[in-house]
Write a structure and sequence with these properties.
The structure is a single chain. By secondary structure, this protein is mainly β. It has one domain (2-243). It is 10% helix and 45% strand. The chain is built from one helix and 15 strands, in the order E-E-E-E-E-E-E-E-E-E-E-E-E-E-E-H. The strands form two sheets. Strands 1, 2, 4, 5, 7, 8, 10, 13, 14 and 15 form a ten-stranded mixed sheet that branches. It is globular.
Length: 244
């Protein structure tokens, strides 16, 4: 994986954050070769200091491959966001190729007053193939307290992963997590999504933390459903600012 400084535009739904690209640091993640392959170990440490804005985005999907020896690949992301700092973390879509074995851990530690927007998308296998196996965990803490800690194990060999309790046979799944202390001052809490957005849930985890999660038959539908959930969030935030 190669890091490239770039000019990044924040997601349109974050207009109320007033992130100026001219005063933000933008970095693109570029795959330097195929993979990760079985046996690879990728680690990335990120620090967003007080008052800084960092937008990190992958330029393409990541294809997780099995490698020649059947070994597990691993990625480890450790992020620290200081008070007044803002992180937009968009690691891109991950595709689990057949026979791959991958473990991914992301830990984000936020100081009081920090902001976070992150989006993850996972596709279970390429067209016409069964997926490999992945175990991924995202843990987010705020001011020393865990506010989100989710572990997901899906794919070949993972018990019950395609049952109705997990994916229900869907081939794509994803989530959006937004942490913004300013929302604690808003009285309008987002309750639900409009009709016509299937297999998608919007949950207010606490006064400052919003989770949108979705299951879909393929990556195209997953993107549409997550975008629709994000659009609903943007409309609500805009309405809150108009009332204020």
């Amino acid at each position: 994986m190669i890091l490239r400084p770039t000019r990044q535009q924040p997601p349109a739904a974050l207009r109320h954050w007033r992130l100026n690209p001219d005063h933000s640091a933008g970095v693109s993640l570029v795959a330097g070769a195929a993979g990760p392959l079985g046996g690879d170990h990728f680690r990335l440490d990120i620090e967003v200091r007080e008052g800084a804005v960092l937008i990190v985005r992958a330029v393409a999907a990541t294809l997780v491959l099995p490698g020649p020896h059947g070994l597990e690949s691993r990625s480890e992301i450790n992020i620290k966001v200081a008070s007044g700092g803002t992180l937009v973390w968009l690691p891109g879509r991950q595709i689990l190729a057949e026979r791959c074995r991958h473990e991914a851990h992301t830990r984000i530690d936020m100081d009081d007053g920090a902001r976070l927007f992150t989006r993850e998308e996972l596709v279970l296998g390429r067209h016409g193939e069964s997926p490999g196996a992945v175990r991924q965990r995202l843990r987010v803490s705020y001011d020393g307290v865990a506010i989100y800690d989710q572990e997901l194990a899906v794919g070949d060999g993972m018990t019950g992963w395609d049952s109705s309790a997990v994916t229900g046979g869907r081939r794509a799944l994803g989530s959006l997590l937004i942490v913004d202390a300013e929302t604690e001052e808003q009285t309008n809490v987002i309750q639900s999504l409009p009709d016509g957005i299937p297999d998608t849930a919007l949950m207010q985890l606490d006064a400052k933390t919003l989770l949108i999660s979705s299951l879909a038959e393929d990556s195209i539908m997953l993107t549409r459903q997550l975008d629709a959930g994000l659009a609903q969030y943007a409309r609500q935030r805009q309405a809150d600012h108009v009332q204020v």
